[in-house]
Design a protein that fits this description.
It is a single chain. By secondary structure, the protein is of the alpha+beta class. It has one domain: 2,3-Dihydroxybiphenyl 1,2-Dioxygenase, domain 1, CATH 3.10.180.10. Helix content is about 20%, strand content about 35%. The chain contains three helices and nine strands, in the order E-H-E-E-E-E-H-E-H-E-E-E. Strands 1, 2, 3, 4, 5, 6, 7, 8 and 9 form a nine-stranded mixed sheet that branches. Strand 4 and strand 5 form a beta hairpin. The protein is globular and about 45 Å long. Bound molecules: cobalt (II) ion.
């Protein structure tokens, strides 16, 4: 069921500073910032040969990553995203196995314009896990 690692997401308090760090220190190629008000974040993607790194900066007063950044003021690894070919089939299989899907359990459109779901970190080794349909 599980496919490629689509991206690793890092929550950051200052997107411009994060971009400068990866661009100047690591020579990374980075996409333009994209505001996603419905997700409460602004994102950029660091393009690597085999995967992507997603930087998340809070957007708006009720950002879902605000609490994470309170606990991790310098930023930190926020989630992993794996690709699946059929998101609803993957969800049904996981729910049947006892895993918890966050929110109402229905896929939402993520930063790549594709359906995504998030799985409860307590069910996946303490790591927030995103599934994206590709
Ligand atoms: Co993500």
């Amino acid at each position: 069921m599980i496919g490629r690692l689509n991206h690793v997401a890092i929550a950051v308090p200052d997107l411009a500073r994060a971009v400068a760090t990866y661009r100047d220190a690591l020579g990374a190629r980075i996409s333009a910032p994209q505001a996603l008000p419905e997700h409460g974040v602004t994102v950029v993607f660091v393009e690597l040969p085999n995967t992507k790194i997603e930087f998340l900066e809070p957007l708006g007063a009720t950002s879902p990553i605000a609490k994470f950044l309170e606990r991790n003021p310098e930023g930190g690894m926020h989630h992993l995203c794996y690709e699946v070919s059929d998101l609803r089939a993957a969800r049904d299989r996981l729910v049947a196995a006892g895993a918890r899907v966050l929110g109402d359990g229905e896929p939402r459109i993520g930063a790549h314009g594709r359906p995504v779901l998030f799985l409860h970190p307590k069910d996946f080794l303490g790591t927030l896990t995103e599934l994206e349909e590709v």
